Amino acid sequence: xxxxxxxxxxxxxxxxxxxxxxxxxxxxxxxxxxxxxxxxxxxxxxxxxxxxxxxxxxxxxxxxxxxxxxxxxxxxxxxxxxxxxxxxxxxxxxxxxxxxxxxxxxxxxxxxxxxxxxxxxxxxxxxxxxxxxxxxxxxxxxxxxxxxxxxxxxxxxxxxxxxxxxxxxxxxxxxxxxxxxxxxxxxxxxxxxxxxxxxxxxxxxxxxxxxxxxxxxxxxxxxxxxxxxxxxxxxxxxxxxxxxxxxxxxxxxxxxxxxxxxxxx
Length: 265
Description:
Elements: H1 3-6, E1 11-12, E2 17-22, E3 27-28, E4 31-32, H2 34-48, E5 53-61, E6 68-79, E7 83-92, E8 95-105, E9 130-131, E10 144-148, H3 154-157, E11 165-173, H4 181-187, H5 195-199, E12 207-214, E13 223-229, E14 232-233, E15 236-244, E16 250-259
Helix pairs in contact: 2-4
């Protein structure tokens, strides 16, 4: 079994409740990655939903999770011929850590319109991109390979900061695995915050709310990612993301709201 599937495994209990264990293998600065935690919750909601396609998952991060035992509770909100809507709560030691909403659609292979008003990101070839190494406390980059376009990576190499808060790069599982719903949620949060490109290292950019709209799964080994921040104000920032497959098809879009905490504070 793939390590990601092991680390997102659930044990059904009763009445929409699941036992799970948050792994330390998908952490950033020793804190479990938000996309990984959303993958756990999406798995639980998916098991409780009669519809499985193109989900939209939105999570509010109430307080910090830590590796160890957890419980996920899922309850339906509403259902129609086209959509099923559910809510999920992730708890540790009886305390709610994350609350998520999921909207799952009826499977439909027909797509009456496929219109893109922008194209996929232009990224340097993978061999020229800078691979993020595994570092103490940054275990995410052991099972995931993330490569940043050198034009965005001056903050990593000491060659200068960029004018724009933007990261472009390549993402894959080192041990091959399709990008299904849980995998895409992880990929949507795999690149470093794009504000680092313009501001350099900051003390922390903790996520408050994260929403991912999945358009299609992908069997491709690599995905292309583009993540941008345009506004930093009142201690908050937004991060807008896109994931594309090898055929230049959009597979997911995301928006993340986070705090901005300068290193000097």
